[in-house]
Amino acid sequence: MAKGLFIAIEGPDGCGKSTQIALLKEFLEKQGCDVLLTREPGGTALGEEIRKLLLVGKERKVSPYCELLLFEAARAQHVMEVLEPALNSGKIIIASRYADATRAYQGGGRGLPLEEVRKANELGTRGLWPDLTIILDIDSEEGLRRVKSCGKDALGKDLPPGELDRIEAESLDFHRRVREEYLKLAREEKERCKVVDGSQSREEVAREISALVLEKIKNNA
Ligand SMILES: Nc1ncnc2c1ncn2[C@@H]1O[C@H](COP(=O)(O)OP(=O)(O)O)[C@@H](O)[C@H]1O
Ligand SMILES: [Mg+2]
Predict the structure, then answer these.
(1) In terms of residue numbers, what domain contains 200?
(2) Which of 97, 90, 72 is nearest to 2 (CA)?
(3) What pLDDT digit, counting tens, does each position of 76-111 carry?
(4) Using CA atoms, how far apart are residues 214 and 33, in angstroms rounded to an integer?
(5) d(Cα 107, Cα 110) in Å, to the nearest integer?
(6) Taking all residues of the chain, what is their mean pLDDT, rounded to a whole number?
(7) pLDDT exceeds cutoff 70 at 43
């Protein structure tokens, strides 16, 4: 059976995930690869409903454990409905966020015990981890500045500049903890997780990502 590849693009809000995912897809398709783009939370009809519950409405009070479990619920659906079938049919999956985001946001950002987050991730992923995780690193103030000037909400709908989703709207300190947790993870899992400096130009970032992905494809063949 064809061997698929699972690539996750991670990093704090505004680090350039959406931008780079579009560029990577174009790059891989030019090489003749069969690419599937997906995102978390979301990626399935049910998951997109959960995405709305999680991200829309800054006024909504959500307990940290409810947030954790909703992310994992969406993930479990995503794994079964999208990721496993795509890998079994030999596709290259590019996912915007996956379980590492739960560690960074609910563990780092919200401060939930990492051991609990790890157990929750075990349930949500059912043991499926990316072959390669690219963490786009960005200074938290710069990331938030970008998000604010971007003018799209979590569902891709146009927004007046300055509007943020429920998690983007968290404090600067929250976003700094998220960034630190991503960097800590990258130090722990050097084989799977590669950090790319997201403050470089779009072209430079894209070049680094495509080199990392090509190397992984070569080793995967
Ligand atoms: N390398 C870059 N340099 C400057 N601005 C960027 C860069 N990459 C993306 N942007 C801009 O920053 C904003 C957020 O980028 P986006 O790709 O949506 O990030 P994310 O999906 O990680 O939140 C967008 O307006 C995008 O055009
Ligand atoms: Mg995005």
Answers:
(1) 5-220
(2) 90
(3) 999 999 999 999 999 999 999 999 999 999 999 999
(4) 11
(5) 6
(6) 94
(7) yes
113 upstream amide cis, omega within 30 of 0: no
**143 Cα to the center of ligand 1, angstroms:** 8
Cα–ligand 2 centroid distance for 159 (angstroms): 14
CA distance 169 to 33: 37
98: domain CATH number?
3.40.50.300
CA of 16 to the centre of ligand 1 (A): 4
Our count of domains for the chain comes to: 1
User: Is residue 143 lining ligand 1, measured as CB closer than 6 Å?
Assistant: no
CA-wise closest residue to 7 among 120, 135, 114: 135
- Where is pLDDT greater, at 163 or 199? 199
So what's the pLDDT on residue 3? 79
Sheet bearing 92-96, strands edge to edge:
35-39, 92-96, 5-10, 132-137, 193-197
Residue to mutate, 10, 134, 146, ligand 1, most ligand atoms under 8 Å from C-beta: 146
